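Re: the 131-residue chain
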Amino acid sequence: MTDRIVNEIALKNNIGIIDYPFEKIKACSIENGNRYFIGINEKNFNNEAEKNTAKAHELGHCMTGALYCESSPLFTQEKCEYRANRWAIRKLIPKKTLIEYLKKGYQMWDIAEELEVTEEFLWMAYHHYFD
């Protein structure tokens, strides 16, 4: 389901998702002209949850315009990463959905499995909403 959501948002917003054999990174997002692209090396992921989380994060960069280059100041990089994560969290794990799962007694790993995201990303969502 998560992969479908990410792909639909990318398609609707004319964001290309390309399988690219990066050597050192798993995924990245770029802007070329007036169009965004997400490059992802599908072979570098251990499971679908990792791939879904990375694609959603990169889509967050594109949807918020939070892009940077390696030479950008660390503050700028951190700000862009925060914006991308916040967008992905709000899109894939709405606060109401997380609360519903928790009220039903689901453990965090159960919820992550249900939502097809990593447990680390789910904890990030938890802290985003409740800290």
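Strands lie at 16-19, 27-32, 35-40.
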